[in-house]
Specification:
The chain is mostly helical. Helix content is 53%, strand content 0%. Bound molecules: heme C (2 copies).
């Protein structure tokens, strides 16, 4: 009897796992099972803000943020609750140090300065004022600390061509930044 009972329970667990595909499997091929993906083309999700991620996933699903259809297959398997729990799963993973941090100490120092102080003379606000003291982000501004430089760079370009309608503030901020400013923050943020 006891054995049969356990078998039924085991079957129920298996069925539940099938009904709700796990984020590590659904998303891990691109982002890494723990959200600390090594490929610089895919953003790291470990420790990223849950509310922010949920919003971005809904924008991808509704075709309002261009992801070149990267999420079409994965999002087809998730309802709203599944999207929320996938975001919660990655938000709860510990961000690992990013080995690809900038190597030039001058650039890293310039990036740190811009992050903390901005460049008020040309209208660049300090990044920390929205993204948090440690670049950890909040419900509206994403975590930047430890993110891959190639991804950050692609997004700083995207703000220019307005593919992220929720990023009105960033579109204005990027216009105030020089090429050197962008190089500096790209050197600083991954190692933050
Ligand atoms: C086929 C590869 C692929 C899969 C699978 C995938 N993603 Fe992504 N994801 C991407 C790419 C590429 C981007 C960057 C899109 C862009 O350029 O704006 C991205 C961006 C994101 C972002 C925005 C990050 C940010 O900092 O703005 C979130 C959140 C995200 N993915 C979550 C997920 C979740 C959760 C899953 C699983 C349900 C998933 N992704 C599955 C490729 C993938
Ligand atoms: C006034 C608030 C504010 C300030 C100041 C600010 N940001 Fe942002 N930033 C945001 C918001 C909000 C988003 C998310 C936009 C969205 O939802 O599409 C964002 C997104 C980003 C992203 C995209 C990250 C991702 O995961 O896709 C990058 C990169 C970024 N900011 C860099 C910076 C840098 C560098 C600075 C300082 C020079 C800065 N930000 C200052 C509000 C701000």
């Amino acid at each position: 009897m006891k054995t049969a009972g356990w078998m039924v329970l085991g079957w129920m667990w298996a069925a539940a796992a099938l009904a709700a595909p796990r984020p590590a499997e659904l998303c891990g091929s691109c982002h890494g099972a723990d959200g600390n993906g090594a490929s610089p083309q895919f953003p790291r999700l470990a420790g990223q803000q849950a509310v922010y991620m949920e919003q971005q996933l809904l924008l991808f699903r509704d075709g309002k943020r261009d992801d070149k259809a990267a999420h079409r297959a994965a999002l087809a398997k998730l309802d709203d609750a599944g999207i929320r729990s996938a975001a919660a799963y990655f938000a709860a993973r510990a961000p690992a140090a990013n080995a690809a941090a900038g190597a030039d100490p001058k650039l890293v120092a310039a990036g740190a300065k811009l992050f903390r102080e901005g460049n008020l003379a040309v209208g660049t606000p300090p990044c920390f004022s929205c993204h948090g003291d440690r670049g950890e982000g909040n419900a509206t501004a994403p975590r930047l600390a430890g993110q891959h430089a190639a991804y950050l760079q692609s997004q700083l370009r995207v703000f220019d061509v307005s593919q992220r309608p929720a990023a009105a503030e960033m579109q204005e901020i990027v216009k105030t930044m020089s090429e050197d400013d962008i190089k500096a923050v790209l050197a600083y943020l991954p190692g933050m």
